[in-house]
Amino acid sequence: ADRVSALEAELAKLQGKEAEFAEAQKAREAESAALAKANDRIRRSEVLRAAKGVLADPSDALRYLDIDPFVVSDDGEIDEAAIAEALADLVTSRPYLARAEGQQKRFQGNADQGARNATTKSEEQRLVDELGEATRGRQFERAIQIRQRLAAIKSA
């Protein structure tokens, strides 16, 4: 590739097109850098995806594997069998990294920050406040209804 580039540079010099050659060379270098960056991103994401069911912490795959040998084709595909083989070798050499049989995900909650059955803490607090007002206002039937709703929320 270097010899071809040198010959192209000499030809451009003979033809008086050195500036055009330099611009084309810069464009090729930028394209090559962008392609390398995209291929690296593809390699990383494919290795992480494949490691999800194999390793307890999928990011360990990036820590312990050399991902550069995994070749990304022109259409963005990567050899999944090679990645699976590398992960199997990693688990063989470092068995403590493997995901245990039946192992749960680390995070077992959800993102509702403590809400229960679509009832938010603010709704429960609102009912407690209403109960206090009903009791102070001697509205005992209303207070009983509010207590029943609170009990239903807490038991759900």
Please give a structural write-up.
Helices cover 64% and strands 0% of the residues. With 156 residues, it is mainly alpha-helical. The chain has helices at residues 2-15, 18-51, 59-64, 80-93, 121-136, 140-155. The mean pLDDT is 82. It has six helices and no strands. The protein is elongated.
List the helices and strands and how they pair.
Elements: H1 2-15, H2 18-51, H3 59-64, H4 80-93, H5 121-136, H6 140-155
Radius of gyration: 32 Å
Distance between the termini: 70 Å
Tally the helices: what do you get? 6
Biggest beta sheet attributes = none
Structural class: mainly alpha
Can you count the beta strands? Answer: 0
Provide the low-confidence segments as ranges.
Answer: none
Could you name the key traits of this structure?
single chain; 156 residues; mainly alpha; 0% strand
Short description:
By secondary structure, the protein is mainly α. The protein is built from six helices and no strands.
